Each structure stands twice: as structure tokens, then as C-alpha cells.
What we know:
The structure holds three protein chains of three kinds. By secondary structure, chain A is α+β, with helices and mostly antiparallel strands. Chain A has helices at residues 23-30, 86-93, 103-116, 123-129, 141-161; strands spanning 2-8, 11-17, 49-52, 55-58, 71-73. Chain A folds into two domains: 2-77, Beta-grasp domain (Ubiquitin-like (UB roll), Roll), CATH 3.10.20.30; 86-161, DNA polymerase, domain 1, CATH 1.10.150. In chain A, strands 2-1-5-3-4 form a five-stranded mixed β-sheet, sandwiched between helices. The longest helix of chain A is centred in the C-terminal third of the chain and has 21 residues, at 141-161. Chain B is α+β, with helices and mostly antiparallel strands. In chain B, 27% of the residues lie in helices and 24% in strands. Chain B is built from 20 helices and 29 strands. In chain B, α15 runs parallel beside α16 (545-572). Chain C is an alpha+beta fold. In chain C, 58% of the residues are buried. Chain C is built from eleven helices and 15 strands. Chain C folds into two domains: 7-50, Uridine Diphospho-n-acetylenolpyruvylglucosamine Reductase, domain 2 (2-Layer Sandwich), CATH 3.30.43.10; 62-264, Uridine Diphospho-n-acetylenolpyruvylglucosamine Reductase, domain 3, CATH 3.30.465. Helices cover 30% and strands 26% of the residues of chain C. Chains in contact: A-B, A-C, B-C.
Amino acid sequence: xxxxxxxxxxxxxxxxxxxxxxxxxxxxxxxxxxxxxxxxxxxxxxxxxxxxxxxxxxxxxxxxxxxxxxxxxxxxxxxxxxxxxxxxxxxxxxxxxxxxxxxxxxxxxxxxxxxxxxxxxxxxxxxxxxxxxxxxxxxxxxxxxxxxxxxxxxxxxxxxxx
Amino acid sequence: xxxxxxxxxxxxxxxxxxxxxxxxxxxxxxxxxxxxxxxxxxxxxxxxxxxxxxxxxxxxxxxxxxxxxxxxxxxxxxxxxxxxxxxxxxxxxxxxxxxxxxxxxxxxxxxxxxxxxxxxxxxxxxxxxxxxxxxxxxxxxxxxxxxxxxxxxxxxxxxxxxxxxxxxxxxxxxxxxxxxxxxxxxxxxxxxxxxxxxxxxxxxxxxxxxxxxxxxxxxxxxxxxxxxxxxxxxxxxxxxxxxxxxxxxxxxxxxxxxxxxxxxxxxxxxxxxxxxxxxxxxxxxxxxxxxxxxxxxxxxxxxxxxxxxxxxxxxxxxxxxxxxxxxxxxxxxxxxxxxxxxxxxxxxxxxxxxxxxxxxxxxxxxxxxxxxxxxxxxxxxxxxxxxxxxxxxxxxxxxxxxxxxxxxxxxxxxxxxxxxxxxxxxxxxxxxxxxxxxxxxxxxxxxxxxxxxxxxxxxxxxxxxxxxxxxxxxxxxxxxxxxxxxxxxxxxxxxxxxxxxxxxxxxxxxxxxxxxxxxxxxxxxxxxxxxxxxxxxxxxxxxxxxxxxxxxxxxxxxxxxxxxxxxxxxxxxxxxxxxxxxxxxxxxxxxxxxxxxxxxxxxxxxxxxxxxxxxxxxxxxxxxxxxxxxxxxxxxxxxxxxxxxxxxxxxxxxxxxxxxxxxxxxxxxxxxxxxxxxxxxxxxxxxxxxxxxxxxxxxxxxxxxxxxxxxxxxxxxxxxxxxxxxxxxxxxxxxxxxxxxxxxxxxxxxxxxxxxxxxxxxxxxxxxxxxxxxxxxxxxxxxxxxxxxx
Amino acid sequence: xxxxxxxxxxxxxxxxxxxxxxxxxxxxxxxxxxxxxxxxxxxxxxxxxxxxxxxxxxxxxxxxxxxxxxxxxxxxxxxxxxxxxxxxxxxxxxxxxxxxxxxxxxxxxxxxxxxxxxxxxxxxxxxxxxxxxxxxxxxxxxxxxxxxxxxxxxxxxxxxxxxxxxxxxxxxxxxxxxxxxxxxxxxxxxxxxxxxxxxxxxxxxxxxxxxxxxxxxxxxxxxxxxxxxxxxxxxxxxxxxxxxxxxxxxxxxxxxxxxxxxxxxxxxxxxxx
Lengths: 162, 790, 273
């Protein structure tokens, strides 16, 4: 057991955890942030993707203790003051989710992709860069559309930030 | 009954109501629930495909840290668990009637929560450990000592059907549990005898698994004060599972409450109850603590109810002009170690002639046990298999007999003027315009441009093939559905017994209810999933939901409007026929008195109303519909193969799908996309491979089981055709499974076309790069190059 | 499954890390964790202690000195993929790093972890062997040709820590891989480099004993450094893997094809599937 201290969705948290506690389990069971999901056991499906220190990671393959002192953003922390993030909005408009289980990780992955990819996104780039996230319901078609739409909507903000 | 001009919501591509919670991480999936004091279950699973359970020593596990109990089939015997009433033999009015040999009753192999005699497949749970933490339960499970007497086993479908195969069940003389023959044998034989041409084919459409991204999970608790069990578990039908699990535990259904809210994908895998659901309920009562189970993904691969696995031998008798005269089929379905569902065999049996007018046919349908995980309905249960058979057979006929594969189909398609069309095995297709589907698909796919694209690919050293398939599929499903319609002060509630796992019922059903009641779409909420609120319903499977829901909601709305008029009549002091209802407003004729639903609902709470009008403005309506509907369509794809590596790239994929009336095109297109992906997955990557020497399943994780992904699928071109079905008020067919039905056929059709210069088709699904490479480089080219096919 | 209990340590420096390793009952070093943690979740590994190397100072970063690109052991794949130094001097290497796993994996996985683990289908071993790199540890320098021993086996001693990998800058290099549809690991992958007259061809994913140098291909390419110099019979199926992904004969063919494609796209890493 050790104490782990980090910031989650802007809120400092501190908990005693078993050393082997996964970040995904820490979020779901210790902090009751059940929006992050666990879909597989081989680090492939991407349902568990969150942001750790500014980049997307598979929280099922990070120990909570490895995140010590860091900051985590989960799906619950994406919307600001009740206003949906452009990626969330685009997923809704484009019908980029059906059962919703892969959706939190998918959205977090998409946000990271849009914010960090150096070139403007195309369908080919989106399909290649999102291969770490699986969806069984949508056939990916609408998710691609949603990510491209969100990237377009976020372009002015991204340009200003650079 | 329906006034289409009044449709304000129906038919519109409205974004979904359910999205809000799902995109902000506030979904309620099974594993999201926890109860104070809950403890954890882990299963002990058989490593053998077939073994007698001689003894189970629980003592070492019981002594371990945190362990509260270790349970086996012996506990089940003592507590008199009943088998899960899967009711696998389809029994609605229009289901094909499957029987055992010589018309006998089908022996299904009882399914106890834990077996006491044998383990009949790798992964079968033989014991359950409950402990304070999940880690303790899993560790203790490793120390449960099971003394197995290993038995001979059989996994292969064809092998299992042989008379001398190891027997999975001692109650049967062999493993064949179903053997029924349908159709006119004499007429079929006569047609074959006089036919100019006969073309035959054998295919094995292999075993796949659904891989819903949410692994199954269950949280059971027991309240000693009320004597009631509560189960949180996602499923394909909470009402059904409530009744099934109550039966297993020997209690009245009223003593069980099942809660199934957000479900992370179903596709058929959750249509039948899992042993863990009953076990956590039972154990929670035994221990006086809530008990939670959640499957690992590897457990899902091993023990989710699996899909498909059909061997089909088909023959077509054809005259000199390419007219189909007769068909013979012999289908063998591998149900696994016990029979959980015969839906795949049954649904497929009704559709062997596909989209074609084949006057006579004979079908022999058999099902066989094997030492494998039981199979169940999986996306378009049974229909992709038989579509594969007929469409590949027609391609073969075209190839061998020198017909153009499009022309051969046109010559034989069922025509609109033949609808309703009863096919040679007794299925009555309700409606459809099959040739128009073909024409539309050909335009959508730009068939004209294919030769140019193929030449261009050739210039890059690649082989481009064109795949084509028609399909007709069926939606029957549980025939009963119930809807409660309730008018609240601030909106409308529909309580209904379907069980979505992503199909958008909270939106599409609200569209129907809103238009029926003449109210804004935004004011309607759909309630699902809690059996204390949802009293009855058929669940979601087989594309049944929209059809049944729209019908029962329409009827309930009629009842509610009638009740509203009667109430207003009472309040105003006139007879009911003096009250008009229009656009959501009740008004008295010859008077300016008018009330909205909300105003009327407020009056409905009064205590001075006559009995039949009291109790609030609400109705409950049951509906039963047995008549199946037959969605149909056409699919065209282009696949580019890299002959140096065997790599496959799907360049284009176009479909036209007749879903009957389309309530929400956004949702229907989404269903088509997802359905396509699952069908393509079976054709190219997915297979529950079993090691032939050990009987061990080899596809135990996503490392071995290839999945459709962002980077191996194209964007699709999908068009919806709406040929209204005459069988239900809204004219709905179904939109959930048409994407999958033709997909395996069309993909293999394209691959075979791309590789046609290397000989006749020789690749079984999944058509992995290794197999394609082998078909190109390791076959001797004895056949002449090229063929006349299109 | 839930991992067996373990203890996690944050050493302040290399000495403390090695000291902990020696003292603990059965310790394992932890870097990005994307091989170790999944293995622990399968309960195939249960170290008593985990020693986190990613917290050590001075092990992360990419530098250029005297014709060598030096990559610190805890440098992330994503960092190598976008590194201006790597992209300018060994673009096949930065491209290879950018092709590992998926983007989330690349945000955690490290070169040190990959090279220490020596997964037979991992990408970095092909680059290390294919460029004749030097694996630098806390106690010595190991040449690539001496480093890779067998499947998951390297020349590292117990407790030895990789601190950086030094890649000599080649005249030309290229990488081409063919990925399994399921695992997305390489069924076969080839790293080719030329420095002066010397050619190195390293193959990963296909060998029955892990990454290896294809000497017949090297000899052919030393005569003529062009795709046309490669003939299928230069790759012997007998030393290759046969499994659900493909037969040894298929892999042999892939190796030849990928070698040609690597030569046809020098300065890049190409991924096929």
C-alpha cells in the first residue's frame, strides 16, 4: 500500500492504494468515476483511454502509482461548465456512438489526436491514428466523420494555441 | 390508421436522446454498479474439452485469505437448482419446425448453473469462489483442486455428426439432436432429374464470437426482509431473464428484480442467461452479502455464447436458359456442448432459396452437439450463412455454365408482382422490390467504372475484384410486446420491454410516440430495463424491436387518446363523440373548451372520477404479432489484393437495404455500418479456432482474434429503400441486421473475382493474407486463365 | 485478471535501483509497462517488487554526437517518432518508432523496455541489429551482434540496466513490416541499412529464435544495393516461424518482399497489413 497523490479533472485527490492498482481501477472504484471503461485484458481495445499529463494513455496499463504527482483528465472532466467539448458535440451530431461503451475512450483518443497531430486531419490519417481504439457497433464510419467535423470546428482554437 | 402527413418526428434523422449520458461518462453499465458490503466471485473453469468430474476438493481454497465460500455442482444438487429454461427450439407460429430424428422432441442437454457430472467444453464453469476481493477470489480459484477423468472429445462440426464420434450426452445415441427434412422431396428429385445443369457446393461458415466491448458482469443481492433477489446485469431482455432465473432458483418471478440499463453491445451474445447471473444471486442469499462477477475479456472469448458454425451442402438445378428449377440443401449446425438456441439453424432454414424464385426445394436441417462452447443467435442469426450458400452457388453456376452473374440473378429474382411470395420451404416474403434494389446498388457502386479501376490497380501490381450479393432476411422475434403510456405533468413516458444495446430505442420509440400523441419529440421519455417497472416485453433480438414497439405504441396511443377523450367528455359533461383530438389537443365540438395533454393529466389525478377514468392518464397495451417480415437488399464491394503479400484492402462498399418504413435514418444507417463490419469481420479476420490435436480454443484474446478496426474498413455508401410492409401499422421491416447478412458472401465474391485467374475459388473464411498468398503462390495453375464472369 | 500483489519503488538514481534489485526477493524493472503490466495481468509474471526506471534522471532524451544518434533508455516511442534529430539523421528509425503499437502505447512505451524485453515480433530489435547499434548499460557497452541471444533472451545480466542505445548514422536505411491482423505485431519485418560497403539486414517477427541477420540477403545487397538483387530463395524457411499467422514459406516470401520494399523506400518505415 502507498499513498498516491494526483489531480483528476482539476481536483486534487489523495488515496491509499495497493501498489498494483491500475489507474483505470483507481478511477472507477476508488474515485467512482465510472465513465472510463475496461473492455479487454491485452491493452488493445482503448475503452480505458484517459489523458495523463497531457497525452492519451491506456489507463488499464498504467499503475496509479506511476501517475503520482501528475494530472489526469477523464471523460467526466471534458465538458466545461455544462458545455460539451466540440468532440462530444460532434459525436452526438454524427451518431458516432451506439452502445456507448467504447465512447469515453474513443472521445479522449480523438481529443488527443486533434490537439496534437501536426498536419490537418484527413480520413486516412484518422483511420490510421485511431487504430488503438476498437468499436463493435458503429463500423467506424460515423466516428471518422465526427472526428473530422470536430477537428474542423476546433481549427481556429488550435491555430491560436500554436 | 396512420396519417403520414402528420409525421413530424418519424422519418427524421434526429440525434439520439441516449447520447447525453454516454458521451459524458454517465452511462450505467453492469460493472458500474456496486453495493455496500459486496464481495467478489471468480469461476473455476474446465481446462478439458470433455471430462468427468470425479471430485472437487475445495478445502485448500476455503482456507485462503478472504475466501467466504467455494461452491460446486453438488451445492446445486442439494439446493435443487433447476436448469436454465433456454427454450432453444423456436416455437413462434412461423418458425420452421425443427425436431429430433423421426419427428421426436429435441433433446437439448440441460444447463445447470454448475454441472455435477461432466465438463463438456473447455471453459465450462465447474466451481465458483467468493471472496472479499477480486484478487483473493481469483487466487483462491487457482487452488480449487478438481479431479477430472479425461474423456474423448470432438470439436469439429462434421466429425461430431458421425455415428462413432465421442458422445457429449449419454441420453442420445449420437450427437445429432435435430434432424428434420422440409420441402417437397419428390418434386425436388424430379426437377433435378430432368435439369440440364446441376451445380453443387459445400461450405463451412465457421465459428465466430460477438465480442461486445462490454464484458458481461452481474451483481446479485438478496433482501431477507422482502425475500427478493435483485440482479444488475446487462442482457438482451431483463424480463425474460427475470423469469428464467426465478425458475432456476425455484422462486416466484415476483421475487426477482432484474436491472439492465446501458448494455455495451449485444449482437446475440446476451440473449440467453449466463450461469454467473444465477450464481451471484444464489450466493448472495447464501452469504448475506451482495456478490459481484465480472468477466475478463479472455473469459468472454472462452465462454460468451458463440455464433454461426454451419456446414452447408447445396445444389441448384438449372435449365438451359439459366432458370432455377430446384434446390437441395443439407445444413448442419454445431450448437456446442448443449443447446441454448436453435435460432441460427431455424432462421436460416426458412431462407435457403434467398431472393430467387426457386419453385421446389428440399432441406435437411441437422444440429449436432460437440465439446465446444454453446452457440446462440449472433447478428442476423442463420441468415448470413444461407445467404452465403445461395449467393456463392449462383456465382459458381454463372462461372461454370458461362452465364453473366448479374443476368443469371435477374432472370430468377422474385418479382414485386409475386409478393407476398411463399418460397419453397414455406416462408412468406411480405414485400420487396428486389430488382430495383439491384439497379440502385449498381448505380451507387458505379459498376460501370469497375473495369477502369481494375486496370488502374493492375498497373500498380494489384488485383481488384468485384463482389456482388443479393439478400433477403427475416425478422420474427418474440411475438409479444407491452407498452405503458403515461402522461405526466411535464411530459410523456413510454415503458416498454425491449432491451437496446445501442440501437437507439430511447430516440426512435420517442419519435413514434410523439407523432402518435401529437406532441413534441423532446417531451417523450422511454423507460426500459428495470423489471419492477417494465412488467412484460420481448427483449431485443432478430430485428424485432422497432416493428413490435411501433405497433404496440401506436395501439397504446389509440387507447390513450380514447381515454383522454372519455375523460374530457366527463369533465365537460358531453358524450365522447363530442370530443375531438387533433395535434395533441382535446377540444369539445361546438364549444371553445380545449385541453392539452398536460392539462388533462392534471385533471386525471382527481379523486372524484368514476372508476374507469381514475388512476391518472395512462394505459397499458399488449400486442402480439406473429407475422414475420423480410428485409432485403443488394450489396456490392471492391477489394484490392496485393499478390506479393496476400494483403486485402476493401476499396469500396455499397449497399441498398429495404428496411420498410425508416423511423430514423441516422440510426438505421448506423446499424447498417455496424452490421457490415461484423459480416466483413467473419469473412476476413474472425474465427474461433480450435487446435485439432488438443481441442483447445486458440482465439483467447484480441491478440489472436482479428477484429474490424478503423484502418481495415472503408467508409460505406449505404442507401435505404422503404418498401412498406403490409404486416404492421407502420410498415416497418427491420434495419438492424441487413448490413451483416450479405457481407460474408460479398467479400468472398470479391476475393474470388480478384483471384479468378489463379483457378476456381479455394479459400475458406476468414480469408487471411496467408491463405490468399497461398492460393496465389502455392496452387499449380492447371485451369485456363480467366473466365467470362463480370 | 487482477495482478498478484507487488511492491512499487521509485529509486532516486541508478545505484539505488540496482541496490533494490539485488535486495528484493524477485524484482523486475518497470519502464513503460506495456509489456510487463499486461503479462502481470495475465498472471504469467509475479515480481515481488517493481522498480520504476522512468523516474530516474538522465535516461530520457535524444542526442547527436560524432555520427551517432543516442537515445536514452526511457525515451518514449512517440518522442523518437517526432524527434528532429532522429528524423533528420535516421528517418527509418523515427518512422519505425512511429509505427509501434498505437498512439496511446507510443505515449508510454520506451526503447529501453523494448530492447530489454526482446519480443520476437517487436520493432526496435530490428533497428538495433539492423544498424549495428550499441546497447549501453550501467556497467558496459554491448554490440548489437552480441546482444540478442534468443526469444525474449538478451545478453543482459540480472539487474543490469540499459541507459541508452547508440545508433551509428548509416548512409541509407529503410524499414518495412507486415502486421498481423489481430495482434498488430509484425508477422515479418525487415530493417536494411548501408554504411560504406557494409550492408545489414535484420529480420524481426519471422524468426523462430527471435530477431536475426539475413546474411544471404546482406551478401546479395552488398553486390548490388537494389530491390532487384533480392531473390526469394535467399530466405530459408527452416529458420522461420510457423503459426496461425502464416507458414514458414509465407514468412520467407514476406521477408524477401519486405526487404525489396524497404530498399524501394529508403529513409522511411512502411507498414503493411
